[in-house]
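Check out one such.
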Amino acid sequence: MRHLPSRTTRRRVVGSLATAVLCAAGLAAPASAVGAAPAAPSAPSAGSAPAPARDTADRAVADPGIKLPDGQALTPPMGFNNWNSTHCRAEFNEAMVKGIADIFVERGLKDAGYQYVNLDDCWALPERDANGKLVPDPKRFPNGIKAVADYVHSKGLKLGIYTSAGTKTCNPAGFPGALGHERSDAQQFAEWGVDYLKYDNCNNQGVDAKQRYITMRDALKAASDAVGRPIVYSICEWGENKPWEWAADVGHLWRTTGDISDSWGSMVSIMKQNLPLAKYAGPGHWNDPDMLEVGNGGMTDIEYRTHFSMWSIMAAPLLIGSDLRKATPATFEILGNKEVIAVDQDPLGKQGEVLSSQDGRWVVAKEMKDGSRVVALFNETAGARSIATTAKAVGLPAADGYTLRDLWQHKSYNTAGAISATVPAHGTVLLRVSADGKWAKNPPAVELGADGAALVEAGKEAKLTSKVTNLGRTSAKNASASLTGPAGWRLKATSPTTAQSLRTGETLATSWAVTAPAGTAPGKYDVTLKATYRSPQGTRAESVLPLTANVVVAPPAGNSALGDLPWISATNGWGPVERNTSNGENVGGDGNPITIGGKVYAKGLGTHALSSVEFYAGATCEKVTAQVGLDDEKLLKGTVVFEIWADGRKAAATGVLTNAMPAQELSADVSGAQVVRLVVTDGGDGNDSDHADWADATLSC
């Protein structure tokens, strides 16, 4: 809703009295002639008037007898929504919707728990018919919505639909909203056989959010009772009026944030906003941090596994947002992981809670109905990090040993109580830990780790130390470590790689010399650390840690524009980081000339909070300077903080800057630093419109 043209209006058109809206879940109903082949519209849109008149049947009179929860959505809804992959493009049509339903069945997603196939905005014509009824777009849905619902139902699935609690929906084309037409629209949805309504917040005319959402709740209840099909009601209010505090008896789920985008920065920002709301979630009333981006291409598979892991441990709705007709095997593997889905769908219905989050190393734990705990070890940083907790800290009772199940590797181990892993950059290790008395039948858990060699200059030897540590209650016998890398690389052990036995807490440490061939191009290269060992019963076990070696080039002497230098890594809250232009929107290369306070800059970096860009300094540079501020392309919106980091030290920072401020000079002494990192945070109020420029950013070496 923030940046793509078809979403920007979700913020801009609600008016000065904008209030929150519920993304409602829909209805399903028996066959009806309503919604079959559509008739051409002959009346003006009922959403065109600034203050809609209501028919008597549609007046907002809340029924105090209607309360939720009502036995629906006892676990978070799972399904599909087309918006993230198609927006309002022509490819969103009847064939796509039916194709997704087919794939749910054929690829095992239905069996995994996915059941809703949901239509987002743009399914209707811009005008209602002469009777004030909604008209499905005859080009997109030539057989009407009921025919689509019938097809989806024939597969044992359910259909969802979209509208807005305003005079129009969020798309600039101006499709009719439901404000003033709640009962009529709910009746149509029910007669078509809709099972889920996403109810958005645009063009709401300043009408109180609670009033608007309660009115549709009551309309949906009446319509669903009339046809005998229950309705799941999803509140898409963007979190603006804190619906978690008042919507538990209004909707089955409520959005807690603005729209997600297919980027690491956006996903992490939304996750951080949703995590503190754990106490409000439960069966029939869920926090909704927006749909999944898994498979849309803007993140790596490691990042998508983190996305899916964290949404599951947060008991979030799992609504697939990628076009499954084009999905890769890796995407299906992530979305179809039944062990991770079981975390999301646990009937106890608890959202995971943050136990620690120091220096980008997160521990989130979720209580399960069987008494076990699921633990997410999430690494927000750009390098591999060891993240640890204990069985006691996550709430398990004292025991001689515990069963530790890796939900992505699908392997079980025993642990003496330590819950620890070295987690790849942007990765998540998801573990289910039980005091079940069966731990001894499993091999001991080991943690693999590595120090050094993250940065490699081609042709020069770098040092790395690998570590294999036994976390188990039982010994790890015949332990061995190996290191492999790209063809032509030299990886030589300079100390022992084996140990006859590792008792609880003991470590096999091995030194390695790592050399990339001269002429190796700068970039990221995969290096793999593997340990093999045996349990006391002789069972062979193996553990693998993927590592990343960054081949870097020493910066030239003198002053260099950072917009022209290669970076080690870059993350951004909306779209990619841009070189020598502003951030623009969600597509690479769509930025504008960097402009702060009317002044245009030829060089720099265009970013969007939350953002982090790392450059190699090689301990040869002294200073970073920049003119920083919010870009004029977002008018008066946005609040950010700029930071310069030298290795692990914050070397300089601004206060909170707004778009009303001119550019400010920011400089930092980075002497001796191997890595310089430019960071933009959101100023503490979310990252809507936080287009942040590092104008004239210069590294002096």
User: Anything to note?
Assistant: The mean pLDDT is 90. The longest helix spans residues 209-227. The first strand starts at residue 78 and ends at 81.
